[in-house]
Design goal:
globular, 26% helix, alpha+beta, 28% strand, Jelly Rolls
Length: 260
């Protein structure tokens, strides 16, 4: 593979597998170096600017100032990168790491995934993801996010938060800085709550960049099956979170009015 460093992934396989399968209350892990060092630079340099007008911008009650891109020119850097992230070779590695009982299936159309870029003020409230792909009806089982941000500072916010909200808990179990070439993997189920609810506080010209790929199986354990649902958001910030939702909702409404 040109971009994914399979030699590194195999060398670190035991550690990554152990970390992933020991994550609680849902399985997760993080590691640096999924892309080869030189190729990671190519990926970063190929990242299109938000201003190029080819992004799908989204602002709603529970997310703000997030841009997404899922279509790429044939032969381009991102066409090749996402092809590798959905390749049989990488899917086989994921299968061995996660020990999922059914065959892992990629999504070449990148529904909900692809390139993500968030600008100053952006947030994504804590949530669990939709559980069924709307076109294939496959079960969503695994998220892989690769961050592409050099010298990210804590004061920028934008850290991925993982939460335990099971059995009446309300505990943040991890906070992951979105550093350059850092991969976060976590299983997707009814308790895999995650997000970056704190609005970005970035200077002009610095955006939060990531590549997201989601993986599926045709079935899942009976104990994990739930009624089909879309993204389910929760408020982990109390009154401040409620105010933030209202403000974001007003912005979204005004954007839609101005487009008419």
């Amino acid at each position: 593979m040109k971009y994914i460093d399979l030699d590194f992934l195999e060398a670190e396989f035991d550690t990554i597998q152990q970390n992933f399968n020991s994550g609680t209350p849902f399985r997760w892990c993080t590691f640096d170096g999924i892309f080869k060092s030189s190729e990671a630079e190519l990926v970063l340099n190929a990242y299109p600017a938000v201003e190029d007008g080819k992004w799908d911008g989204t602002t709603y009650l529970d997310q703000k100032n997030k841009f997404q891109k899922t279509k790429f020119e044939s032969g381009s850097v991102f066409d090749a990168v996402f092809a590798e992230l959905n390749s049989d070779e990488f899917l086989g590695w994921l299968q061995r790491v996660t020990k999922l009982e059914d065959k892992i299936i990629g999504d070449a159309n990148l529904f909900g995934g692809g390139l993500h870029q968030s600008i100053n003020g952006a947030f994504l409230n804590v949530h669990v993801d939709y559980n069924i792909h709307p076109e294939t009806q496959f079960h969503r089982r695994l998220n892989t996010i690769v961050y592409m941000n050099k010298e990210w500072k804590d004061e920028y916010n934008g850290h991925l938060e993982l939460w335990d909200l099971s059995n009446n808990n309300k505990v943040q179990i991890a906070q992951v800085a979105p550093e350059f070439n850092r991969c976060v993997m976590f299983e997707t189920n009814e308790i895999s709550f995650h997000g970056h609810p704190k609005p970005l506080n970035t200077p002009e010209g610095i955006n939060r960049k990531s590549l997201a790929t989601y993986y599926y199986t045709k079935t899942r354990p009976e104990s994990e099956i739930a009624q089909d649902h879309n993204t389910i958001y929760v408020n982990t910030e109390g009154v401040a979170g409620s105010v933030k939702r209202i403000t974001s909702g007003v912005k979204a409404l005004l954007e839609r009015i101005n487009k008419k």
